[in-house]
Every structure is written in structure tokens, then in C-alpha cells.
Amino acid sequence: MGRILCVVNQKGGVGKTTTAVNLSAALAISGKRSLLLDMDPQCNATGSLGFDPSDGHAMISLESIEEKILETKVENLSMIRGSRTLQDVDRLAAAGESETGQVRKHLDSIIDKFEYILIDCPPSVGPLTQTALSASTEVLMPIQCEYFAMEGLTQLIQIIKKVIVATDGRLTFGGILLTMYDPYLELTREVDEEVRDFFGDIVFDSVVPRDVSLCEAPSHGQTVFQYAPRSRGAFAYTQLCMEVLERD
């Protein structure tokens, strides 16, 4: 069975979408059949791969979603686009209210076609994020190496624990990723130590540095591997990919 990784943090600007896009691309480049699902109404993951938002989100359809799956310019990487339609957002948020949930049913129907499915969530702990968590098998949490890195995490972790119980253990902690990492800053080193002391082995050894290539690539509708394959950002996500594969 494939792995469904929900990339989540209640804060914006922590590298959540960057991680969802580039980790899914790295997995695909490694030869793993991968799918990126955009469930953030901002649709930044959709734009990052050169697509326009969908008029209607595939996850609210009662029909098969296979025809809604698009092939990207990265070999082995497919995508389900996000939608900015407010009605779609409301219906997606409610799609996890039933025992199994519409989103989970859709993903379970295609899980045999992909080895990895990554879900990009909105920066919140609201119903939409909880719907995505309920459909996932693992949660991957990017944390920015800045002063308020740990702020609000208690609330997010409590919600994740509730979902784990509600889904009979289907969801597990997949890992925590330190982003915007600058080893020359004392604050970065302090956050690194604090996060690793608190969470232990769940924190990935790989870290994602500040790299302008990661910021520029989405404006070209490309992953960092297409835009700047020799950049520090590309190397970091390659290393993270290797760790994710090792935890299989």
C-alpha cells in the first residue's frame, strides 16, 4: 500500500508548499510513482507546477477521480489541482465528517496506483486540514527556524492525536522538518536544539536551507530540480527524499 503524507503546519510561510512540491518531485525522480494533491485554497502548489486552479475540486466529486489526475513535466509525478471556489472549500472541509470521509475514499481508490501521495494543506488547524489528516497515513510537519517556531504546535499536535485515535491508528507521525535553516545564526542553532530535544528521533536529520532558488522556482512553474538542479535547495530535498524512503 502506498504512503499518504499530509504536509501541515498551522502557520504560513514555513515552507509547507515548498516541501510538498519538491519532496513529491524528488520521490518521483527517484523512480517512485507520486501524486501531489493540492487542498490549500491558495492553490500555490498547483501554480508551482505550472497549472491553473481547477473550477471544481476533484475531491468533492462522487465519481471516480482518475480522469482528474494530471501528468506534470516531472516523470512519475502526477497532480490533482486545487480550487479557490468558496463552495468547494466548504464541501472539502465537510468531506471528513462521515466515518471514512469522501477525501479518504477517493485516495483509497487510487492508492494502488501510487507509491507516495503528498497533500498540501492550508496554514490552519481547521476542518479542511483535519479532513486531509483523516485521509492520510503520515503527517509531515515543516518548522521554520525562527523565534516563534514552537508557538501553536501544542494545539496542532493535540489535533493530530485526536485524528490518530479517530482513524484507529491509520495516521502516524511521519517526521518534522527544519526549514529556512541558517547554521551561521545562533537562533537557528537554538531552535534546532530545542526541536530535537523535544521531539527526538522524529525530526529529520535533513534540513532545508534558505535558498533563493526555492523562492524563484514556483514563479516559473517549476520544481527546484528543474529550475536549479545544483542548488542547495535541490540537494536538501534530495537528502530529505532519501530519509523518507529509508523510513518506509
Automatic annotation (TrEMBL):
Transmembrane regions listed in the UniProt entry:
none
CDD domains the UniProt entry points to: ParAB_family
Q: Where is the AAA domain?
A: 3-169
Give the matching Pfam families. AAA_31 (PF13614)
Please provide, alphabetically and separated by semicolons, the GO molecular function terms listed in this UniProt record: hydrolase activity
Q: Which UniProt keywords apply?
A: Hydrolase
Keyword Hydrolase among record annotations: yes
* Top-level class of the enzyme under EC nomenclature: hydrolase
Q: Which InterPro entries match?
A: AAA_dom, DNA_Partitioning_ATPase, P-loop_NTPase
Q: What is its EC number?
A: 3.6.-.-
Record carries keyword Hydrolase: yes
Protein name (record): Soj-like protein
Which organism does this record belong to?
Novipirellula aureliae
The uppermost taxa in this organism's lineage are: Bacteria, Pseudomonadati, Planctomycetota, Planctomycetia, Pirellulales
